Amino acid sequence: MAGFIKKNYKGILLCLAISVPAWLIVKIFSVLEVIGAPVIAIVAGMIITLIIKDKSSFKDGIAFTSKKVLQSAVVLLGFGLNLATIGQVGLTSLPIIISTITTSLLAAFIMFKLLKVPSKTATLIGVGSSICGGSAIAATAPVIDAGDDEIAQSISVIFLFNVIAALIFPTLGGFLGMTNEGFGLFAGTAINDTSSVTAAASTWDTLHGTGGQVLEYATIVKLTRTLAIIPITLVLALFRMRKERAKSEKGKGISIKKIFPMFILYFVLASVITTVITSAFSGVVLDYANNVFGFLKQLSKFFIVMAMSAIGLNTNIVKLVKTGGKPILLGFVCWAAITGVSIGLQHVLGIW
Questions:
Q1: The whole model's pTM is what?
Q2: pLDDT (tens digit, 9 = 90+) per residue, 85-106?
Q3: How far, CA to CA in Å, does 105 sit from each of 9, 50, 164, 181?
Q4: CA atoms of 198 and 188, how far apart (whole Å)
Q5: 52 to each of 45, 47, 66, 314, 335, how far by Cα in Å?
Q6: CA of 352: how far to CAs of 134, 182, 281, 349, in Å?
Q7: Number of C-beta neighbours around residue 30 at 10 A
């Protein structure tokens, strides 16, 4: 333990020095929620890394934060998922969710081929667009062994279209004559990140005086979408294992434990624990359990902010800007495709 602390404490403290202010500033100024603390942390990290000329003493701690803390964040995210609640309400949105996810992944693959975007960046943007933005990227990045530059690029693209969606979707929904349920489903299936889903749904509730019902429904739809992290990351892990095995002679030297994303299984276990406890208990015990799960969910969000600060510290902002055109175009196509499919299917199914 002493050796671990000596090796990593400087880098971890630097990440905390970035992530704590980023976390607090969003809490204090709620208008910044549409941007999100992870984006603020990653940008701050990229700027600070230009100032610090010698990062050798911080290197190990930054690496630990960008990898292990990020994986821990994904595991803790599971404590925010009650599978029973999602099953009761979210199943009605399942056809649209499956369609939008499939559309986004296909769009990402096609644009990857056409634009020659690096495969890992294309995968992260495709998964982030189709599932749940930064959380999906956080879960997928370790599985495909993505670099910090690729993670930062993907987060930046997702952030751009999150902001646009949060700003224009309430007006677009009103123009199209959507019902409250229709807009909740639209926001939950067509906006990438939970913070932006919340922002758009809250704006709709304020404009239409719905008392928060759209926010609640959109959030459940979004959580249902989040569950897609599990099959997609497992498929990507199996694909990577197969690819690595093919490179090695008869699989020698390949550690399944090293490649397989065990943290995804822990994420599933956390979701199951939350579901079982909230279903089996009531009263004071349930209130206590919900408080604990709520704390763990918030800790998960903070760990993501902390990991993003580490990723920012390892990212070359000049290179990011120079190579940003194609990933942004790829992200736009995914986002536009999801938006079109969500609106089109709702119209066909007569939801609004």
A1: 0.79
A2: 777 666 778 889 899 999 999 9
A3: 39, 34, 21, 26
A4: 9
A5: 10, 9, 18, 11, 36
A6: 29, 5, 37, 8
A7: 10
